Amino acid sequence: MEESDNFVGKTALIVGGTRGTGKEIAFMLRDMGASVYVTGRSSAFKAEDKIHYICSDLEKETFASLEREEILQVINCTDILVYCCGPFLQKTIAQTSADDWEKMAVMNYGLPGAYLSSVLNHQVEQGWGRNVLFGGTRTESVKAYKTNCAYAGAKTGLSVLVKSAAAQYAQSGITVNGICPGFTHDAPENTQNISERQLAYNVRTLLCRKELNGVLLNADFGWNP
After folding, report:
1. pTM tops 0.85
2. Which whole-number Å values give the CA distances from 117 to 30, 87, 131, in the listed order?
């Protein structure tokens, strides 16, 4: 029996699930039997899709967003968390403003961490949980970045979060993994685009296999900048 059969009756929260890769993941988990909730700026689903929509402007989310009643209710029963959003910023360090630093830190590190912290209480109580956080391209380890340091630094911080949570909660039946996606469009000359559906299937693998815990998966055709 595949472990994915256990998704029947599970509740999934996809932060950034109304379009792109997040939308692919939402439909995939729906088809695997989970009750799926997605957050995003515009409703991309109809009622008959059996996916629940929570309106959220992800570019303006703050930590207070987790206290919204409609989000808090879902967090308190989330068995599967996929956090697949975060704004990109391409500037040199000298060009990066204080507001830029704050936005990158909150949106790409602080909020994913806060969502994970919030769902872990329920998952520990249930003795089961599956979580995947999206890093940036090749941010699984510390590297130098000439034009996107603030973004990449925050996404690299997720690697510490993934490894730490996986180690701490493995004995509670919980897995925490990260995926570092390649380019879904406009790939550099020495690599190729990865489709949103391909990324969703990689996320599915990380969610379905309990022996995969603390994994930082590069899904980028081996791109090496």
Report:
1. yes
2. 24, 21, 11
